């Protein structure tokens, strides 16, 4: 897999540092609350497991699976709910954990869904933020790294289902997808 990577953007050590920084901030901000952590499958599972272990409050973890990319390199423009969360969010402080915010469609879909079910608060913690890709308004409250408008893989992020298990984030060589 390493041979397919043109450039490493964030190393294992960079990622560890970002998780520790975000975990500290979240621990402060959620002190005294009992948030429901909502991890967005599949991409965010790597970031979720690392960041929650730095997040020192009583919390529950749930998952939601939505799809907009269908494995390719561009958002399809519609968001499908593949698998709903199992907890009741009525009155809960919900913290969404995402891998990357690009167009913002996935996040705004999930935020609307949670508020329509009477969540008390909804905040967003994303590993990567790609503000140049925004099509709809979506603002992350906690961001690991801000990335340029490039397609990245690794640490949960896939290309056609592969590269999620790379322990770092990188950019693919053009010949991989050309
Ligand atoms: P949005 O709905 O904000 O356009 O995109 C959200 C989803 O698109 C992310 O959760 C992720 O699965 C996928 N995505 C967006 N940008 C990238 C990227 O640069 N690389 C990969 N692998 N997936 C991306
Ligand atoms: Mg995602
Ligand atoms: Mg994907």
From TrEMBL:
Listed cofactors: Mg(2+)
Keyword Glycosyltransferase found: yes
CDD domains reported in the protein's UniProt record: PRTases_typeI (cd06223)
Pathway the protein takes part in: Purine metabolism; GMP biosynthesis via salvage pathway; GMP from guanine: step 1/1; Purine metabolism; IMP biosynthesis via salvage pathway; IMP from hypoxanthine: step 1/1
InterPro entries per record: HGPRT, Hxn_phspho_trans, PRTase-like, PRTase_dom
Keywords in alphabetical order: Cytoplasm, Glycosyltransferase, Magnesium, Metal-binding, Nucleotide-binding, Purine salvage, Transferase
GO cellular component: cytosol
Superkingdom as given in the UniProt entry: Bacteria
GO biological process: GMP salvage; guanine salvage; hypoxanthine metabolic process; IMP salvage; purine ribonucleoside salvage
Start and end residues of each Phosphoribosyltransferase domain: 14-160
Enzyme type, top EC level: transferase
EC number: 2.4.2.8
Any one GO molecular function term: nucleotide binding
Catalytic activity: IMP + diphosphate = hypoxanthine + 5-phospho-alpha-D-ribose 1-diphosphate; GMP + diphosphate = guanine + 5-phospho-alpha-D-ribose 1-diphosphate
Entry's localization field: Cytoplasm
Similarity-based family: Belongs to the purine/pyrimidine phosphoribosyltransferase family.
Its job: Purine salvage pathway enzyme that catalyzes the transfer of the ribosyl-5-phosphate group from 5-phospho-alpha-D-ribose 1-diphosphate (PRPP) to the N9 position of the 6-oxopurines hypoxanthine and guanine to form the corresponding ribonucleotides IMP (inosine 5'-monophosphate) and GMP (guanosine 5'-monophosphate), with the release of PPi.
NCBIfam families, A to Z: HGPRTase
The name this protein goes by in its record: Hypoxanthine phosphoribosyltransferase
Species of origin: Pediococcus pentosaceus CGMCC 7049
Source lineage: Bacteria, Bacillati, Bacillota, Bacilli, Lactobacillales
